[in-house]
Each structure stands twice: as C-alpha cells, then as structure tokens.
C-alpha cells in the first residue's frame, strides 16, 4: 500500500457533520485495504464508552473505531471532557478521570500545554499501530479567543502534518461567509494545510451548486472536494446531545410507547438506539409530563449528575409521573444514573457532584447509592433471563449501590458476580449501558404489551451495513482520488 499522511476533518462550526464524515472515511479506507484508526485529541461529550481495557473514551471515537473494524482505545481520544453542569466538566485523561475543571479554568490554564503533549503522545502511539490516522477537529477552527490554547484543531494539524479538509454545513445558511471567514482567519502555516473544502448536508439538486463551488474556489484558492447531499435514511450514532433535538419527542397511537425521560444531564442516550429500530415500539424523548403520562414504558436514563437530575425531576413533577406509572402497573426501568434514582436514597458525602449531599430516591427499588470518587469502566458479558441468554454491554459509573433486601439480580456476569435489581418484569434497574442493544432484553421488556416476537435483529450487523451504506454515499460525492493523491503528497513533505 502507498504511504498516506494523516487526514483531518475540521469544521466551520459545531455539528457540521465532521464526526459522520470521519466515520465514512474510516470505512472507505478500510474497504480500500488500509488499516485506519480514528483520533480526536479532545472531545466534550456525555456519550462515552468503555474500552476493552476498562478505560473511557468519547462514544464518537468508539463508533469510528467500529467503522475501521478495530477495537477502540484511549489513544483515539486521550482528552475527554464530561460536563457536570453549565460551567463544570470532569476531565478524563487517557481513559481515567483526573478531576473537575471549570470552563474558565480549562481555557486559561497553562496545563493545556501538558494536555497537548499527552494528546500528541497518544497520536504517536496510535500511528505506530495503524495507518492512516483519521483525525477530527472540534467546533470551529476560527475561534480566535480559544485558538492559542486549542489542542484539537489547527495546532494539532500542524503537529501531525495532517491533510486537512474543512467541513461546512450548508443547511445552516451563510456557507460562503463561514468558509471564507474561517480560512481568512487562519495563519499562513495553518491555511497551507487546508487541502479541500467539503460542503455538507446539501438539499436538492447538487448541480445547482456548481457556480457556488467556483465562487468558493476563487475566493479561497482551495478546491471544493465534494458536495455531500443531506441524508436521513442512513443510521449513524449521534455524537452528543445536539442529536436529541432531531429525535422524536411525542407519543403515538396504536403502538407501544416507550418514553425516555429527557434529563438535563442525560448521558449515553445511545442506550436506546437499538430499541428505536424495533418496529413494535415508538421511542420518544421528553421532559413534558403530559407526554410522559402517555407512555406504556418509562425509562430513566444515565446522568452525569445524578443528584442534580434527581432534584430536577422532583421539581418539575416528572418524579410524580414516574411513581404514578409504577402504581398503575406500567413498566419503569432505570439505567445507570436512572437506576440510582429509582432507589431509596442517593448520598454524596464528599460533595463530588455539588453542594447537595443527600436526596431521597423514587423508592421503587430496595437499593441505596453512595457517590464515590472512583469510576467503574468495564465491558460486560452477562446472562439475562430464565434461559440465560448471552448478552453484552458496558459500565461507566461513579458510585456504589447497595441492595437492601433479598431480590433477584438482573444479570449474571461472566466472573460469577451479579448486577442490577430485578424487582419484577415491569420494574428493574441496572448499571449496564447497552443492555437494550440485546434483543433478548428488548423482547422481555415488550412481552407484557405484545405477542409479536419481532424480526430477527442484530444491532452489530445492522451497524455494519449502515457503515457500508455511509461509505458508499460519501464516496459517490467526494473526490476520493484527489484526497488519496493529496495524502500521498503530504506524506512525503
């Protein structure tokens, strides 16, 4: 194979589609015989994933690793910021939390030089195992107030000598100003790394943008490498909570309604992606008490700040709706933070999540939780149900939950331990993220509401097909030959 330089996708703004294009390029390179790996120096996300070694990275890089056909690793996302409130984030370095930082502290701290070096060291390690590396930027490349201490965009592009492609979201409007302005604000050495412009999310006949391509190329002196049509029929996991705005938020008639409680600090909402593909149900996300009352099944999801979200659902009346649903014989389940909330009490004696040190739970499960500084991160193989169906998932949580009564566990793990609490078929809780990626668990959840066994379904096989469809879609509209040529040239500079 010809030697290729790293390739990097940066954006004119947040949610321009960098993560999806990155995943597409990962799969294209894999299909073309290369051995790529994804990389994002710093990610800010509440959607995270546990690596096989028991460390934590952003979910987007785990998804991109799947597109590459490889196991995820902390070197793919060495710095992860997990917001715990409007101004505070947990800092995860090389897969392990090292404390909380305020936004002001993080941006102003000279410690970013240390994080930059750590992130680059991760890139170097990754480069020894895979080639090429497919890097992803974050937000906009032209945030001048942040640029000096930025470790994820053009500073990293320079350090890695990556061939950089600027992604612009035409759906937002103002694409000419955003592209031209972003490039105009770059330093000469940064601009020299921009090898192409990608116009993303185009609606309608792309031939109508031929004049637009010429104008952009004349304005910037950089080729437009592709115009990618908007798609909604290809399924790729959303990177973070911005994706929730596009999800269904209403109950429907004549189907099983499954409501996911929309918490302020909702984490790992990818837990419900497989369930969304089941044609027996209508999955929706809501904090509207009237909509939540229409649900047959209520799910309390994970949270980055259990006590804050527990307080939130009590103040808004959501807690009362959940309790009423349980009393009416509806199904109520909790995952991770939701599992903690369903118990008798949640304690935070060390104030790790804030000033509130204790709150009573929803009193639905005989457990109590104490928030702890140490974090559990592990991939989990377990058996579920009376027939012991083999299942898998992963755990990422801070806190220890004690069972206060003799009750049945939800899962039997490979190491002989048990996990979660199974009060009965319509009330249970677990720390296992991805528990609903397993068809056996979904079928059990829906059994009280339907005799329909559903179609045979493997979420893993489904995602593989979608990665291939994404790769074919992007390949059709990107000048892949020009990209390969540029990567070859950059590799020899």
Radius of gyration: 23 Å
| CATH fold node name of the largest domain | Rossmann fold
CATH superfamily of the largest domain: P-loop containing nucleotide triphosphate hydrolases
- The number of distinct helices, counting runs of at least 4 residues, comes to 17
With strands numbered from the N-terminus, the spatial order across the biggest sheet is 2-9-1-10-11-12
The global form is: globular
Main β-sheet description: 6 strands, parallel
Instruction: Please report which band the strand proportion falls in: under 5%, 5-15%, 15-25%, 25-35%, 35-45% or over 45%.
Output: 25-35%
- Spatial gap, N to C terminus: 18 Å
Structural class: alpha/beta
Multimeric organization:
single chain
Low-confidence stretches: none
**Annotated CATH architecture of the largest domain:** 3-Layer(aba) Sandwich
Helix content: 25-40%
Kindly state the mean pLDDT as a whole number? Answer: 93
How many distinct beta strands? 26
Indicate the CATH class of the largest domain: Alpha Beta
Number of domains: 2
Could you walk me through the main structural features you see in this protein, from its secondary elements to its overall organization?
With 493 residues, this protein is an alpha/beta fold. It has 2 domains: 7-235 and 465-491, P-loop containing nucleotide triphosphate hydrolases (Rossmann fold, 3-Layer(aba) Sandwich), CATH 3.40.50.300; 249-456, Rossmann fold. 32% of the residues lie in helices and 28% in strands. The strands form 6 sheets. The protein has a 6-stranded parallel β-sheet with strand order 2-9-1-10-11-12, with helices on both faces. It starts with 6 loop residues before the first strand and ends with a helix.
